[in-house]
C-alpha cells in the first residue's frame, strides 16, 4: 500500500487516455476516480475509528487534488461529516455532490459554501469539469422517499466523462425496475456492494445491501465492462468474502469481467473491455 503522499502523487501523475478510467479504492464504498484530468472522491471515509479494520489511507488535509467530492447518502462512512470541512479547505475549488434531501444541512452544519454544494435526486444531473454525474435511487435495505419533499434518502450515481461510463451503486439492494433503468447506459465499470443483510444487523441499526449473489445477478442484467465488488473488510460483522462474488460470476456469467479492488492501488480500466 502506498504512503499518503505517494498515493496523492500517483493520482496526480497518472495519465488517463480517452476511453479509460483510473480508480483507487479507499476502503468500504470509497473510491477515487480519474477521468482525463478530473478527480472525483466518492464516499471517502477518512475518519479514524477503533472499529475500522482498514485504517484511513489519507488524512482529509491530504486531499488537495479533488475536483468533486461525492456522498451517496448521509451515513458516516459515506458522507464523512467531520472530515468534509477539512477536505473543502484542502481542495478549495472542489464541488460537493449529495442527495438533495440533505443538501441544506450539509451547507448549514459543515460550513461548506452554498455555491459549492449540489443536491441531486432521481435523474437529476450536474457537471464537474467535463464529467456529468446523474443520480438514480438506491434502496439501502428499503427504497426510502422522504414524505415531505419526495426526495430519495440514498442515491446511486452514473458518472460519464472521457468517453467512459461508471456506475457507483451507493448502498443498495435491487428494487423493481432497477435493471431496466440501468440498461439505458452502456456501463463500462460498476462498483457494487456485496456485504448483504440480515435480521441481526438490521435490528442493531446496521442497514444492509445486496448479497454477493444479487450483485452478480445485477451485473448479469446490466453487463458492465468490469464489475468491482465493494463494501467489505472494513467492519467485523458487516462484510463478505469477495472471492465468493468472483467465483459465482465466473460460473454464472463467464463472459463478464470482474476485479477485486486493492486498497490504495491504481487500476486503469479501458472501454474496450466491455462485452
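-> sequence recovered:
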Amino acid at each position: 500500500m502506498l504512503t499518503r503522499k505517494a498515493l496523492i502523487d500517483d493520482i496526480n501523475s497518472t495519465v488517463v487516455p480517452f476511453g479509460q478510467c483510473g480508480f483507487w479504492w479507499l476502503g468500504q464504498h470509497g473510491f477515487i476516480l480519474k477521468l482525463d484530468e478530473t478527480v472525483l472522491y466518492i464516499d471517502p471515509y477518512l475518519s479514524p475509528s477503533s472499529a475500522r479494520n482498514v485504517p484511513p489511507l489519507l488524512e482529509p488535509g491530504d486531499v488537495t487534488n479533488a475536483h468533486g467530492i461525492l456522498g451517496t447518502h448521509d451515513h458516516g462512512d459515506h458522507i464523512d461529516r467531520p472530515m468534509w470541512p477539512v477536505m473543502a479547505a484542502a481542495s478549495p475549488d472542489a464541488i460537493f455532490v449529495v442527495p438533495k434531501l440533505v443538501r441544506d444541512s450539509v451547507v448549514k452544519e459543515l460550513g461548506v459554501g452554498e455555491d459549492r454544494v449540489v443536491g441531486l435526486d432521481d435523474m437529476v444531473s450536474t457537471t464537474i469539469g467535463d464529467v456529468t454525474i446523474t443520480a438514480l435511487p438506491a434502496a439501502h435495505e428499503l427504497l426510502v422517499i422522504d414524505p415531505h419533499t419526495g426526495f430519495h434518502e440514498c442515491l446511486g450515481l452514473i458518472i460519464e466523462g472521457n468517453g467512459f461510463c461508471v456506475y457507483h451503486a451507493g448502498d443498495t439492494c435491487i428494487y423493481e425496475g432497477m435493471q431496466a433503468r440501468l440498461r439505458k447506459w452502456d456501463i463500462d465499470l460498476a462498483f457494487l456492494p456485496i456485504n448483504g443483510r440480515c435480521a441481526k444487523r438490521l435490528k442493531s441499526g446496521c442497514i444492509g445491501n445486496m448479497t454477493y449473489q444479487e450483485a452478480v445477478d445485477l451485473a448479469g442484467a446490466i453487463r458492465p465492462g468490469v464489475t468491482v465488488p465493494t463494501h467489505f473488510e472494513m467492519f467485523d460483522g458487516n462484510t463478505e468474502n469477495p472471492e465468493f462474488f468472483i467465483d459465482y460470476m465466473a460460473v454464472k456469467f463467464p463472459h463478464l469481467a470482474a476485479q477485486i479492488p486493492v486498497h490504495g492501488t491504481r487500476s486503469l480500466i479501458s472501454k474496450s473491455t466491455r462485452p
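The chain has a mean pLDDT of 97.
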